[in-house]
């Protein structure tokens, strides 16, 4: 008669358990090589929304009216190598996150956004708005357009829209003459940097391929803006930002350079920085601080191709396309003096320290609102 120990050793349960473990081990080994697309649909509800408010931030979420227990979010595996950032984002169905710090709402901005030819179901929008009377007005105007668009034709609807409200008011008046005064720049741009970082860290999802920073007062861009910038395959790339304005003397509409933050550094600027205190910043476009940098805004040449690219040391944020991996690598917008640079120019410097280069298109234009 077999002993109890011998019985345990020859029990069928032991064989079943061993076979189960073996099958599980084989599954884990071979499933790691799966190259299927990012499984974003696994966390989507029947209406194309996230099933939980704790799902990835770039997916839309609507609160349920059910009074039952809160359903925990699903466990989703993201294979980040599958989040491509290619020269043909349309063919590869790459997702784009358009982020806009918004202190004042311009209808022309929204209308231009709707004209973008990139499929809207691949675009998520993110906005951050300061508190206060002006911020309340901007929020109300934005929400009205969001409601209209998202209830309209399916082709026009965006994949998701996130609106954040800051807990502080803008430290500087949003009137153009005030916000561009030199003495207001450090406080203004530090606040802008904090807003950008809050917006970025809240909305960047694991399936995001590209981040397009688009200022709220950019009212005219080519419809193929995203495709045109992405096909250059640069980690950071900016178009040239100009402004249409009415010349009273000539009686005609003219164009002039607007964004002077896209530049190539100079020895003069570096020398100035070496003599500054650690907390001081260099600013561009002010006669009181002549840096003699090479400004992309001054290099446009209509006889040259709009695809001509140049390497930059500083970038502006009026229209700025960034591969999502650059932000994931840690490049953000310093609200402090970073090598005597701040906000978007500080971002370019921080990205360069991480090995990412910035590029510009001097003959490819977007246009700023004329106040």
Keywords:
371 residues; alpha/beta; Spore Coat Polysaccharide Biosynthesis Protein SpsA, Chain A; ten-stranded mixed beta sheet; two-stranded antiparallel sheet; 12 strands; 28% helix; 19% strand; transmembrane; golgi apparatus; Mannan_Polymerase_Subunit; Alpha-1,6 mannosyltransferase subunit; membrane
Secondary structure blueprint with pairings:
Elements: H1 4-9, H2 12-31, E1 95-101, H3 107-114, E2 123-129, H4 133-150, E3 160-165, H5 176-179, H6 185-203, E4 208-214, E5 218-220, H7 225-230, E6 236-247, E7 252-257, E8 263-264, H8 267-274, E9 294-295, E10 310-312, E11 319-323, H9 324-328, H10 343-353, E12 358-368
Parallel strand pairs: 1-2, 1-4, 2-3, 6-12
Antiparallel strand pairs: 4-11, 5-12, 6-7, 6-11, 8-9, 10-12
Task: Walk me through this protein's architecture.
- This protein is an alpha/beta fold and 371 residues long.
- The protein has a single domain (80-368), classed as Spore Coat Polysaccharide Biosynthesis Protein SpsA, Chain A (Alpha-Beta Complex).
- It has helices at 4-9, 12-31, 107-114, 133-150, 176-179, 185-203, 225-230, 267-274, 324-328, 343-353, and strands at residues 95-101, 123-129, 160-165, 208-214, 218-220, 236-247, 252-257, 263-264, 294-295, 310-312, 319-323, 358-368.
- β2 (123-129), α4 (133-150) and β3 form a beta-alpha-beta unit.
